[in-house]
């Protein structure tokens, strides 16, 4: 009944999320090279053809996963610092959100350790996305440093 009330795009989004979550878990456990697309499909409860229709190559699936990971960690860090005006506290809150993402989000772990293994064009695209995240950190670190509240050394 619940599926009947959901639109096709909501069903597709949910299954895509399940697929990417399964991929992230398997990639973290076995590595990208040690995980087959068939294993990901099985883990997500999907047909292999449905996966390859959405993501024609494993690399396109990895890029989608990493793109989602960057977006999530940007959201997590931005949300964590949103209510504080103190630059050092904002830096502390951002670090906490970042570490939480590393520990609890398989996709962020995969992003951190497997992005160098991707093809050059994919790494270039991913580098653009990572740059957005790194610029958030640049701003937080600069603000904390400029505040005079950080201990020297």
Task: Put the structure in a nutshell.
By secondary structure, the chain is mostly helical.
Number of helices: 8
Low-confidence stretches: none
Alpha-carbon Rg, integer: 18 Å
Structural class: mainly alpha
Strand-residue fraction?
under 5%
pLDDT averaged residue by residue: 90
Major β-sheet annotation = none
SSE order, one letter for each helix or strand: HHHHHHHH
Q: In percent, how helical is the residue content?
A: over 70%
Total DSSP E strands: 0
Shape call = elongated
Q: CA-to-CA gap between the ends? A: 61 Å
Task: Furnish the topology, listing elements before pairings.
Layout (H helix, E strand, L loop, with lengths): L1 H4 L2 H23 L6 H8 L3 H7 L3 H24 L5 H18 L1 H9 L5 H27 L7
Key words describing this protein structure:
153 residues, mainly alpha
Give a structural overview:
This protein is mainly α. α2 packs across α3 and α5 packs antiparallel against α6. The longest helix has 27 residues. The radius of gyration is 18 Å and the shape is elongated. 23% of the residues are buried. The model has no long low-confidence stretch (mean pLDDT 90).
């Amino acid at each position: 009944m619940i599926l009947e009330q959901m639109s096709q795009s909501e069903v597709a989004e949910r299954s895509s999320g399940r697929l990417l979550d399964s991929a992230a878990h398997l990639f973290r456990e076995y590595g990208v090279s040690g995980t087959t697309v068939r294993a990901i499909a099985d883990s997500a409860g999907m047909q292999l053809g449905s996966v390859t229709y959405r993501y024609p190559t494993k690399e396109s699936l990895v890029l989608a996963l990493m793109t989602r990971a960057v977006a999530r960690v940007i959201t997590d860090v931005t949300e964590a610092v949103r209510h504080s005006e103190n630059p050092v506290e904002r830096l502390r809150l951002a670090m906490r959100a970042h570490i939480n993402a590393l520990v609890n989000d398989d996709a962020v772990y995969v992003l951190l350790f497997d992005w160098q293994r991707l093809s050059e064009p994919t790494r270039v695209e991913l580098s653009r996305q990572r740059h957005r995240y790194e610029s958030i950190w640049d701003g937080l670190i600069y603000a904390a440093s400029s505040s005079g509240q950080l201990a020297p050394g």
